[in-house]
Model the fold of this input.
Amino acid sequence: MPSSERHSFGADVLDSHFPGMLTGEAFERHIESLAQQTPRFAVLVVSIDDFEKKLKDFGETLFLPRLIQLPRVLADLNGTWEIRWGRLGAHVFGLFCPYLGEEAAVDLAKVLQRRYTNVTDETVSVGLAVYPFGPFEPVTILENARKALTHASFFGARTVTPFDAVSLNISADKLYQNGDVEGAIAEYETAAEIDPGNLNVYNSLGVCYGVRGDLDKAIGAFEAAVAISPEDVMATYNLGLTYLKQKKRNRALELFLRARSLDGQNPDIAGHIGMSYQEMGEIDNAIIYLEEAAERISVGSGVFRSLADCYVAKEDFHNAAKFYEKAIKASPRDAKSLNSLAHVYGILGENLEIAIVLAEESVSIAGDNGLYQRRLGELYMKWGDYEKAMAALAHAHELGHPCKELIEKARNKAQGRQ
Done:
């Protein structure tokens, strides 16, 4: 907590009422010092509920007396319990309670809540953590209590929440959302150590390992989740996705089919079953599941594009065009769908001018794709623009997509030779 916290809301008034009260970093250091000297203790972090809203509703002048009542309650408690207290933030206070276990700490928190509400009609929430607990060092317990307070916010006002694996899971979720994958992994791993039966922890851990590219560890985490709850759809589905990333299509398909037996209405599962069959060359089976997914899915181009590819494989170009069009509507800069639709229009001999526009757009997005350049060149030839055809085909050839015969044909056409 920055030293400027001393000058936050009500600091001068609080200092006058409670001289010597430690605040911010000074209080944090005091807790750390006490923690290193005490073999068993609890730390409580107390926050006035809906503080920002109440401050806005009452105004600083009217709300300040309500704030002052909280340290008064803490000072009164000090006469019954052996505690050290101080201010951690504008509306957040902390208590160090030597030799207090979790059950007694919860009781203390509830007494604190009752007394504060009796004198103010306001409520407070409390996060608490104890030492010893799991793999944690004494100096980390204050931070654990803060994580427990964040956990408490999920339950509404006037909540007392002891630190546990769920507190760590919530903390890890925030780290992941902020892009700190390694930090999230460390939190999830610790949560798994504390509570090895926590399904959500292993699911989240598997996702993080997958993002990091550590697929073997991701599989281990998802398998642990499935072992905890064989009926969990997401763990089974995520395990299938990870095997698919490893190109183990048969194992992935087996898991997708199991996930489907658990949730037959999920279009993502149906889509991945279809795409797995497609990759295995079982086009008819692929179409069955991809059609089902396409009926239910509302966003994303992957299912539509895969279904269109399957229809191309069956030379059903009208259906292929229909689903490439849907893929482009879902993802307008999907270069593969743009180019494939242009190619299908060329095969059908329909919408040639539109086909050229689509192909040009595809190479503007993925100009280093030799196939896309070749198809554009072929469309230019059908349109009769042989100069542009030669340029596109030459580019395709340079990109490793052989086009010598087509280039020669375009040159002959440009020179009036058949």
In short: Confidence is low (pLDDT under 50) at residues 1-7.
